[in-house]
Amino acid sequence: MTAPTIERDVSLLVQEAIEKHGAHRDALIPILSEVNHALGYIPAEAFQEVHKQLQTEDVSVSKGQLFGLASFYDMLSTKPRGRHVIKFCENAPCHVVGGKAVWDALCDSLNLKNGETTPDKKWTLVTTSCLGLCSVGPVVLIDDDLYGNVVPGQIDKILARYE
Ligand code: FES
Q1: Would you place residue 6 in the very low, low, confident or very high pLDDT band (cuts 50, 70, 90)?
Q2: Which of 41, 46, 65, 108 has the largest count of CB atoms under 10 Å?
């Protein structure tokens, strides 16, 4: 029995995602999302696999197009991320109700800048566009948990929930 490799894991992941969502261009984002969800990001091998496996189904999409899609959407990442991803809404409605102070508290607490990951790979901090809860800004999304009306003094308490 041969040892598993990341290439084979990615190949299988992509194969399962294509089977689930279908081999057509409209399924590209769901296919990439499946890989992103399983691995926490989309490695270069995945673009190669999606390109190769869809080509055998007569769907033409270049690795560059796939990378472009993955880098356009905040929900997808082409770089490894921490076990927990913090997304901070940087749009105006959140900004005017104190978003900058919350952002500064997050950066200070984690000692991170936008897009960085802690050395222990626990946290990744990124800004994002509107999270759809503008009426309760500032808004922070940690993994699948939404926090509204966040104030700087709550940051350490919120982060502690993920210990
Ligand atoms: S502007 Fe921040 S959630 Fe909409």
Answers
A1: low
A2: 46
